[in-house]
């Protein structure tokens, strides 16, 4: 399936702020939001719309509405930084938080919980998985496995920064899931961090000290 790496000037400039180690959490949050808005445009462009007629003050005009319901699945913690941008475009979407954290020794994700319904209703036409970082791909694959088991039909993964290793793992495991991403970096380092990357996205958004 497809991988779309954004070339948009807003994405490229916002990502530069995210990468800069001097960027404060306040600016990091703002730039992640700004970048995510552009990704939201890319990620939603294939949503299906139904036509209907609308009455203007002067005459009838053709109108459109989204034909199905969408679900946003932010992966905690860092995915929460993308959520407001997507809700700006899809204010009626369900939000199903999913919590996991990567074991820093094995580099595999550990699942902590989810608000994804046990059986996803058939009126949900697209589930958007939101996570800024696609490193080894383990977290994205776990999230998609989970959502598929719950019955999701169409899933889109949206990230800010990826590594080739993670993109390949995700494409092999889930070739039906399109990937929309802000940039693709060179490689992972020996600790599983994206290089040159932006560091730990969760810590930069939500520093604890
Ligand atoms: C980060 C990131 C992804 C994951 C990516 O989260 O937000 O969820 O790592 O790595 P992977 O592709 O190798 O699985 P982390 O587990 O560090 O949790 P955090 O968001 O709470 O910092
Ligand atoms: N998670 C992050 O937050 N950053 C990385 O580079 C890899 C995983």
From TrEMBL:
Task: Give all residue intervals belonging to the Phosphoribosyltransferase domain.
Answer: 5-208
Which InterPro entries does this one have?
PRTase-like (IPR029057), PRTase_dom (IPR000836), UPRT (IPR005765), UPRTase/APRTase (IPR050054)
Q: Entry's Pfam families?
A: UPRTase
EC numbers for this chain: 2.4.2.9
Named cofactor requirement(s): Mg(2+)
Report keywords, A-Z. Allosteric enzyme, Glycosyltransferase, GTP-binding, Nucleotide-binding, Transferase
The answer to whether UniProt assigns keyword Lyase to this entry is no
Which pathway does it operate in? Pyrimidine metabolism; UMP biosynthesis via salvage pathway; UMP from uracil: step 1/1
The protein's superkingdom reads Bacteria
NCBIfam families in the cross-refs: PRK00129.1, upp
Q: Which family does it belong to?
A: Belongs to the UPRTase family.
Q: What is the name of this protein?
A: Uracil phosphoribosyltransferase
From which lineage does this chain's organism come? Bacteria, Candidatus Uhriibacteriota
